[in-house]
Design brief:
The protein contains no helices and ten strands. It is mainly β. The chain is globular.
């Protein structure tokens, strides 16, 4: 099956005239534990995770070999009940998969994800 696609929210930056009602809201999607998650990699993405459950669950962000031959997954990061975590920003080198996407996942659907693209 196809991974759940996220539409990144582009951070508004420091321009105060763009902060109108709901302009800074981020959409959080329930983790698709079976199919996992993806977003088109911009090279400057933050992955926001919120554990809405009552137990700790894990988050993984999948890396790829960078130009220096290194990998470094964010592997089985434990996110406690009710906690939020922010991962990244993820540069394209070492993180963008061959299809141009960034891959991430959670061990339970109690985790919600949102993606912020930094300007």
């Amino acid at each position: 099956m196809t991974k759940q696609a996220h539409t990144p929210f582009t951070a508004l930056g420091s321009k105060t005239n763009v902060y109108t009602a709901n302009a800074a809201d981020i959409t959080m999607l329930v983790a698709d534990v079976s199919n996992k998650e993806m977003v088109v990699a911009s090279g400057n993405d933050l992955v926001v995770a919120h554990n809405t459950g009552g137990s700790p669950y894990t988050i993984t962000v999948s890396s790829v070999v960078d130009p220096y031959g290194r990998t470094g997954d964010v592997a089985a990061y434990s996110l406690g009940a009710g906690e939020y975590a922010v991962f990244g920003p993820f540069a394209n080198d070492g993180w963008r998969q061959t299809d141009g996407k960034l891959y991430f996942e959670a061990s339970n659907a109690a985790v919600k994800f949102g993606v912020v693209k930094l300007p």
